[in-house]
Amino acid sequence: MLNSAHAKPSILVVDDTPDNIDVLKEALKRDYTVRPALDGATALKIALSDPKPDLILLDIMMPGMDGYEVIRRLQADDNTREIPVIFVTAVSDIESELKGFELGAVDYITKPFSPAIVRTRVSTHLELHDVRKKLKKQNQELKAQTDLLERIAHLDSLTGISNRRHFDKMLEVEWSLALRNKTSLSIIVADIDYFKGYNDHYGHIEGDQCLCSVAQCLSSLLQRPTDMVARYGGEEFVAIIPVTDIKGASLLAENWRTGVEGLRLPHAVSAVADHVTISVGYATLVPTRDLVPYYLVGVADEMMYHAKESGRNMVCGKEIPPFV
């Protein structure tokens, strides 16, 4: 897009000869606002001004900073890189023209020039630049929408934490990293105690709210960006805790248990307490090529069921020794 829907496009004309600037200004003044610069330093200052020029007509042979150096600096700055530059110069050999294009020029006009040709080239490149900017904006919007859809696809629609699909993906990633780096990997599995009775007693709307509250509690207790918790299914939650030994896993598992208990969500039909509680299992190992990721999940799940069988509202864990 141009600087304004109503203002004329702005053309920066850079030439050390005032007469050349006057000729170009006369050719362009009807349709464009022409801003002159007699040297490279002034041209760069104007290019960085607000509003920036929509296009630059640039001479090559100038004292001090020549046109090649000007375009190098324009291309090196994120604020000016996308301004179209057309060389307008008496230098007409093929090598110079190729050098201009290699440095980022969009066109090359040799002197003496026809004013009509200059107007046509300027108009064409302004239109092309406008199209490129619109396409870039559309691509950015499309990418943002795609990223949003991908994030949504990774989330559990009820609780807002990661879903089983994303857990499976990240488990493979973290397992591979731990295998390569020979570091510990821990899995924690938690299940809400007597949740079926909770749903039957309070109704599914309250049941859904209970799941959301527990999910947010568990998520808030994670310590690092690399840790993740997901809804594993129903009232069961699972976490991947990379680079964490058995002590670290045990501590977080217990924090989960006390954290949910601290919510004091009423549970009138629980055989454990008068509020919502969870049973938690965890397992830790250093991955080897003889094992698969879901072996670790299976052991953590077994530990969770052991916690249930031992009375619920408990934490049980296991460190899996290296396989020889």
SSE inventory with pairings:
Elements: E1 10-14, H1 18-28, E2 33-37, H2 40-47, E3 55-58, H3 67-76, E4 85-89, H4 94-102, E5 107-110, H5 115-153, H6 164-181, E6 185-192, H7 195-202, H8 204-220, E7 228-233, E8 236-242, H9 246-263, E9 278-285, H10 293-309, E10 315-319
Parallel strand pairs: 1-2, 1-3, 3-4, 4-5, 9-10
Antiparallel strand pairs: 6-8, 6-9, 7-8
Largest sheet: 5 strands, parallel
Low-confidence stretches: 1-5
What's the tally of helices? 10
**Roughly how many Å apart are the termini?**
66 Å
The best one-word shape is: elongated
The strand count comes to: 10
Helix content: 40-55%
- In the sheet with the most strands, the strands line up as 2-1-3-4-5
Give the radius of gyration: 33 Å
Strand content: 15-25%
The pLDDT mean sits at: 93
- Order of SSEs, N→C? EHEHEHEHEHHEHHEEHEHE
